[in-house]
Each structure stands twice: as C-alpha cells, then as structure tokens.
C-alpha cells in the first residue's frame, strides 16, 4: 500500500511540478536538433550550461546529486557507528552490506569477493539509487520551455535520469573494464590471461591435441572480442532498460492529459522493480566476468577432490 501511495503521489506531482521560470541568461536552451523534452524524451542528454569549457548535461547534474546524497548518507552512517548509536539507517545499511557480500561470496568465493566488494557493491548502490532517484517528482519535469495553454511544455529539463544517458553507463562499463584488467593481471598474470584465453582444455594427446590447439586458437580470438565487447554490453543493457522506462512514463503521462495523474502509477511501480533488477544484473555480470578470469582451475579441482571422500563416506 505504501509503494502504491508513493507511486500515485509521484505520478500526480510530475504534473504539478511541470511549471518553471523561463531560462535565465547564459543558460543553454537548445536541445538536440529535432528532439524536444516533454512528450518526447531526447536520446542525447541536453547541455544545461558549460563549466570551464566543459558541457554539463542534466544527467550529470542528477548524477552529482545522487553522489552527494550517498556521500552524506555514508558520512552519517560512519558517525552513528563510531558514536555507538544504532538506528534504522545503520541497521538498513548493515543489512544491505551483509546481503551483498554474502551474495558475491556465493558467486565468486569469499577471497575474491573480499577484494572486489568495494567496487561491485558500490556499482549496485549507485545504480540502484540513481534509478530510483529518476522516479522522483521534478526529474524531467522541472526546467525551461514554452507555455502550451495553461501548462508549460518543458523543452530543457534541469534534471534527467542518470542511467538514461549512454555517457553515464559507458563510464560505468569502462571503469569496470579497467579494474577487471587490473584484477586479472594481479591474480593470473600475463601468462595466466593468455592461458585462460588460448590454452586448450582437457588432457588430449597426439593428433587430437593439435586439433584442439587450432580450435582453441579460434575460440581465443572470439574470447578477446567478447572481452572487448563486455563493457559496451553492460552499458547498453543498463541504458536501454532505463531509457525505455522513462520513455514509457513520459508517454503515459501525456497520452491522456486528463488521466496524467493516474495512468503512470502502475508503470512507476514496475520501474521501481526494474531499477532494482538492473542494478543487480550489472553487479552480477561484473562479478561473473571477474570470476571467470581470476578463478584457478587447480583450486576448483582441489575443492572437488576434497568433496569426494565425504560423498564416499555417506555411501
């Protein structure tokens, strides 16, 4: 009921917050050619202003806002823990950390999860909070535009969903790729990476071994292509799902203006779930990619051999 109430309020508030003052002097008011805000969400994030010659888009502003809120929350959590005060905030954060660490440990193993949790856990928290922040009233409906009857048609929103901008998701994917390479180099070394990509698997000898070498050489080239594509696949998957959700909400909001306060409600509820799933998928795929390159076959074989006597004892 609480989630339904919040979704109802958010859908109604997006209309009430649609009015904003005209664009001030010095603020870029153009949007990409042929694209407007309001009913049609632009594919490219519009530039709101420039800072030291660097264009600042509305998705960047929302991303900074999300980061600031998370930093302040983390600082507050640290203060409360050091003061020995246990509140709903500290309990929620501790439960989230315990769940994520246990989840990654089940996938990657405790040792590897301990080394990578700080980044993978941060991915989950930032993406989840950014996705949910994009559902709040004012995101996409406060900005500059022109009057359309009694309603202001926003053509330059001040805020935009963080992950509805491909630049943001590409930055996350690139950041993961950099650390993936660093962890792979540290855990396996250059020879280990080459062996993982090109070395034939199995204990075949003779002619079959030569055949397998040729086969795994071709497979290795495909694996290199797969590794290069991984950050782009992470970025496009996250961007596509979040952008499609925002387009759907915009459509439901303006399809029938009289029912603009009601039609988006079920879709807001769905986007809450989509935001959670996409954050979890991004973290999960990142963990799997790291595990594939950093896991050692000897360790796996050792664990399997250790499990065989137990199975025999039960017999």
* Average pLDDT level: 80
First-residue to last-residue Cα separation: 52 Å
Overall strand count: 4
Helical segment tally? 8
Mass-distribution shape: globular
String of helices and strands: HEEHHHEEHHHH
**β-sheet strand percentage:** 5-15%
Give me the side-by-side strand order of the main sheet: 1-2
Helix content: 55-70%
Largest sheet: 2 strands, antiparallel
- Residue stretches low in confidence (pLDDT < 50, at least 5 long) are 1-39, 298-315
Q: What is the C-alpha radius of gyration, as a whole number of Å?
A: 25 Å
**Class from helix and strand fractions:** mainly alpha
Total discrete domains = 1
Topology:
Elements: H1 2-16, E1 47-51, E2 54-57, H2 58-82, H3 88-108, H4 110-133, E3 143-148, E4 151-157, H5 166-198, H6 207-255, H7 265-294, H8 297-314
Antiparallel strand pairs: 1-2, 3-4
Q: Could you explain the architecture of this structure?
A:
The chain is mainly alpha-helical and 315 residues long. It has one domain (2-296). The protein is built from 8 helices and 4 strands. It has helices spanning 2-16, 58-82, 88-108, 110-133, 166-198, 207-255, 265-294, 297-314; strands spanning 47-51, 54-57, 143-148, 151-157. Strands 1-2 form a two-stranded antiparallel ribbon. The chain has a two-stranded antiparallel ribbon with strand order 3-4. The longest helix is centred in the last third of the chain and has 49 residues, at 207-255. The relative contact order is 0.14. The model is unreliable at 1-39 and 298-315 (pLDDT under 50).
